[in-house]
Design the sequence.
């Protein structure tokens, strides 16, 4: 078990609501409304890495892959509770739209 997950008294996820490759929408936070593809699900820490979301800059030492080193932009983790499947999100938005139209009509 991961130390970080252990310190928060969390059990690893048995069944994740999203899987690698799923299209998701961020539902809360500074990246709200943005879409992306799930690259990795971290079950021990209840987090996901989504393509193009929450980009951070990281200093990298020179290596064989990157002989110059420097600063690299990469995706950071997001809490799994802050993302929702895109299909589910669209259904939710459609439902809200219909409710608003009914309210306006009478």
Sequence:
């Amino acid at each position: 078990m991961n130390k970080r997950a252990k310190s928060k008294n969390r059990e690893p996820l048995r069944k994740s609501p999203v899987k690698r490759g799923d299209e998701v929408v961020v539902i809360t936070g500074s990246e709200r409304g943005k879409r992306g593809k799930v690259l990795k699900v971290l079950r021990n820490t209840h987090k996901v890495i989504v393509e193009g979301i929450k980009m951070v800059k990281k200093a990298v030492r020179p290596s064989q892959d990157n002989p110059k080193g420097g600063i690299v932009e990469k995706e950071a983790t997001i809490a799994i509770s802050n993302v929702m499947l895109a299909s589910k999100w669209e259904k939710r938005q459609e439902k809200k739209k219909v409710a608003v139209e009914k309210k306006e009509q009478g």
